[in-house]
Amino acid sequence: GIQVEQSPPDLILQEGANSTLRCNFSDSVNNLQWFHQNPWGQLINLFYIPSGTKQNGRLSATTVATERYSLLYISSSQTTDSGVYFCAVEWPARQLTFGSGTQLTVLP
Amino acid sequence: ETGVTQTPRHLVMGMTNKKSLKCEQHLGHNAMYWYKQSAKKPLELMFVYSLEERVENNSVPSRFSPECPNSSHLFLHLHTLQPEDSALYLCASSQDSGGTDTQYFGPGTRLTVL
């Protein structure tokens, strides 16, 4: 099956810092999504990004499908950004395969 | 209510009990999903329903039995579970247009099997 690897596994930041999270995948995929899971378990969809770049406020994402990776940028981080960030790829069809996540802690 | 709701939010059950998890989506979607999230492991897809028909069943033990009576409701019936089945069970929905559109998740049911 497809391998979805996220790095780093853990990240601790001071409030106001910027960060980049990476997702590598081992095969061609139809699409890729980024999610944030808050400390209470709720998963929120951040981006649906099979290719190209998208921005939403302090967050942006870039997927380079031909090189099989995606990046999630968080600028001016806030304590509310803490949680686990997952990327998920559509593989096989109609199914999402998730990476192991990056645990982000933003300190005040 | 809006979005995807799940009940109960927490459930503790013995190995001989029978219980059901409920999921309801208010987004007008036609596809619904059950995922299992165990500690220290990625989310695992369990079941996919599209237009109320099960399209995927990822080798899930028969002690988990899904039911999708209509496009807005999804159930997961549980019986004779094992302690290793303790996990966060997440429901999601999306608009199935032949591929995977953006998925919207419920808050989850945290299950503990004693």
Descriptive report:
Chain A is mainly β. Chain A has no helices and 11 strands. In chain A, the strands form 2 sheets. In chain A, strands 2, 4, 5, 9, 10 and 11 form a 6-stranded mixed β-sheet that branches. In chain A, strand 6 (52-56) and strand 7 (59-64) form a beta hairpin. The model of chain A has no long low-confidence stretch (mean pLDDT 94). The model of chain B has no long low-confidence stretch (mean pLDDT 90). Chain B has strands at 4-7, 10-13, 18-25, 31-37, 44-50, 53-57, 64-70, 73-79, 87-94, 104-105, 109-113. Chain B is mostly beta strands. In chain B, strands 2, 4, 5, 6, 9, 10 and 11 form a 7-stranded mixed β-sheet that branches. A 4-stranded antiparallel β-sheet of chain B has the order 1-3-8-7, with no helix packed on it. The radius of gyration of chain B is 13 Å and the shape is globular. In chain B, a hairpin with a 2-residue loop joins strand 7 and strand 8. The chains are: A mainly beta (108), B mainly beta (114). At the A-B interface, strand 5, strand 9 and strand 10 of A face strand 5, strand 9 and strand 10 of B.
